[in-house]
Automatic annotation (TrEMBL):
It comes from Ruthenibacterium lactatiformans. Pfam families: PALP (PF00291). Residues 13-313 form the Tryptophan synthase beta chain-like PALP domain. This is Tryptophan synthase beta chain-like PALP domain-containing protein. One of its GO terms (biological process) is alpha-amino acid metabolic process. Keywords: Pyridoxal phosphate. One of its GO terms (molecular function) is D-cysteine desulfhydrase activity. The modification N6-(pyridoxal phosphate)lysine is found at K49. Belongs to the ACC deaminase/D-cysteine desulfhydrase family.
Amino acid sequence: MKLEQMPRYPLLCGFTPLQRMENLEQALGCGPLYIKRDDLTPLGLGGNKTRKLEFLLGDALAGGADTLVTVGGVQTNHGRLTAAAAAKAGLACTLVLDGAQPEKLSGNLLLDCLLGASLVYTDGRSTSAVIEETLAALQAAGRAPYFIPEGGSNAVGSAGYLAMVPELLAQAGSLPVPPARLVCTMGSLGTFAGLWLGARAFGAPFSVTGVAVNPTTGYTREKAAALVNEMSAAYGLDIAAAPQDMDIIYADAAHDYAGPGYNVPDAKTRGAVELLARTEGIFLDPCYTAKSFRGFCDIARELDGGAIFVHTGGTPALWTQEHLDAFAADYWN
């Protein structure tokens, strides 16, 4: 099926902004540097999952679903936007959250509750088993659930970022210096895979680099190439990818962008949040985008040409209890 033939539920309102970061250029001594503001998508406080959910929701509705079910961490951004998309489309939503219920309500969990999502915590049980139990219970109750994998990162959801590339190229076409690199967060591979395939399919002047935000991630280059190839076959693009083609920066001795652990507060990540806030008035989140932004800054310093950072959202993470406590230690004394 061609990309344009895919069922799609409209959640966007035109292009998200592409902005130059001139103050950051001065701070880093390089440029030109741009930021693609997918944190400003109009649904549920914004974020990259909105693009994926246009295709996932379209597929769910085409199949007669009445309930969206997805999985993620306790403070999942994807879960929050899935709940928002379900509310917009008049569907129910259940979130399977990988962990125990926190003592205090904060961040995305408050938004999940406001959006009417049902929350199911794994609380030490097998995540896959809890998902199966949840789907079975919904079916037994007469519901028609549609399951969305972590991050919406399958061939359907990742089409959102394949489809985003022409939008970005239309914006970048008027730039005085063509961007040589596009840098994005790599969490569950979908955004990266869609952008990588889109760059090849639409003849982009930039290469795509993903920065891993989990130091122990299981989302390997092999899995990235497999997702790209699945999408290429599904949408008739005849583009093949090999693991060595996947430009993903993983945690190692030379690259500590992912920090000490997934969603674990650290000073360098908080420093990246502060840098962009104080140069451009734009907020990053301490779980995802601040980590990849650190990688972007290092890439930009070494690059001969322009670069674009894709801001994938996640702002509510600033108000999760663990990160509030960490920021309080820095500022509130």
